[in-house]
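$ ./design --mode recover --in tokens.txt
reading tokens...
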């Protein structure tokens, strides 16, 4: 059963960087993975593209032949891909290959051809129209679902949006619209979380932005931003107060901005859906990648897929994944990447140096290696046998 991630998001969110990093990470954990480039404008990829839409159609040819701009050319290219979906299907079948499988039907042996499992990353274009209201991308992925793919949409957003309330609200609306349009298991990710320390201080804790609940606490900060006032944690507003209290205080101090009613309506809309939430990602951090991949696997059902034991119980899956070992809560992520990043970076550097020294250190020959022990000695339980049990144990001698 093939699985796939549909990597979407606005330009600059880090989609190609994510595909490159996730491809390398999956190779490190011995999970077969291929990357498919669906962006006709991306003529240089850091990852090895197993399938490239530019082999079918390029943005430059469309712009010249149809006299379209870059955005219109990308939309035209995706429509062209939708009409030539057989090209994509044939390429995907070639990635995993076909394998003969023998099984019993009515007591008789039969053989059939099935597509081998292959994890695929789809690097999609950055035009937001494609995953907010244009239908071609959605139709392409619906066709892939009919082929048996289990798809998860990964919506990437640059963590810089957290620094300004207006941009954050816009990102919430974009994420919500994408979830409703794509109609797939969906994970929103704040990328470049390791850059937060270089940005201005966040007005509210990081957990507020990742959970995206009780958004009325943002209203005083929205008012301050629209009045061109400084925004930060020291803003004279208590984030624990209700929306009515904040609004009343704002009315007493100075008149509300002309966007106040619109701000309240948008926040109420997002709150009513209660669908949007964010994972975090530092693509170069192993623990961050591990945590995100676990969330993706749960969303797409990979933990229960054929490659990792479809007949396992929930308990077996939890044990195999290590339970909550290595899981970082949002407050831990904020401490790692915002509050004490320099300390953690130094600690991580020392750990890497110790691992490198351990790898260069020659192993001592005084101790017997496990390879010198017989396999029978390792497997047999060390329990005394009764004298008259009739069991005769023959142990092999170690090789000279």
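writing sequence...
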């Amino acid at each position: 059963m093939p699985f796939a991630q549909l990597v979407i998001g606005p330009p600059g969110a880090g989609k190609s960087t994510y595909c490159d990093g996730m491809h390398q990470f999956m190779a490190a954990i011995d999970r077969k993975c291929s990357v498919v480039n669906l962006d006709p404008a991306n003529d240089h990829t850091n990852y090895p593209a197993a399938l490239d839409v530019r082999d079918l159609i390029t943005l430059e040819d469309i712009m010249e032949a149809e006299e379209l701009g870059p955005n219109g050319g990308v939309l035209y290219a995706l429509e062209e891909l939708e009409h030539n979906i057989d090209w994509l299907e044939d390429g995907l079948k070639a990635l995993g290959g076909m394998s003969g499988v023998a099984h019993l039907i009515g007591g008789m042996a039969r053989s059939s051809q099935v597509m081998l499992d292959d994890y695929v990353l789809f690097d999609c274009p950055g035009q937001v129209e494609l995953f907010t209201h244009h239908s071609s991308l959605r139709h392409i992925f619906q066709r892939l679902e009919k082929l048996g793919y289990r798809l998860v949409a990964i919506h990437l957003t640059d963590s810089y949006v957290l620094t300004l309330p207006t941009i954050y609200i816009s990102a919430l609306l974009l994420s919500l619209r994408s979830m409703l349009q794509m109609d797939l298991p969906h994970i929103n990710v704040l990328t470049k979380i390791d850059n937060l320390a270089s940005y201005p201080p966040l007005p509210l804790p990081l957990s507020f932005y990742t959970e995206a609940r009780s958004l009325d606490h943002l209203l005083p900060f929205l008012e301050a931003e629209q009045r061109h006032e400084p925004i930060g944690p020291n803003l004279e507003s208590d984030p624990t107060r209700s929306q009515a209290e904040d609004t009343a205080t704002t009315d007493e101090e100075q008149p509300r901005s002309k966007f106040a009613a619109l701000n309240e309506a948008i926040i109420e809309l997002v709150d009513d859906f209660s669908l949007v939430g964010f994972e975090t990602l530092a693509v170069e951090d192993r623990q961050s990648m591990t945590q995100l991949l676990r969330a993706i696997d749960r969303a797409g059902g990979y933990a229960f897929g054929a490659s990792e034991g479809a007949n396992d119980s929930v308990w077996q899956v939890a044990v195999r994944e290590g339970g909550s070992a290595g899981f970082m809560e949002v407050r831990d992520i904020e401490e790692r990447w915002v509050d004490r990043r320099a300390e953690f970076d130094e600690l991580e550097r020392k750990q890497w140096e110790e691992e490198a020294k351990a790898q260069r250190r020659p192993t001592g020959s005084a101790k017997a290696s496990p390879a010198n022990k017989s396999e029978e000695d390792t497997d047999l339980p060390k329990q005394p046998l009764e004298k008259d049990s009739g069991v005769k144990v023959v142990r092999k001698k170690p090789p000279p």
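exit 0
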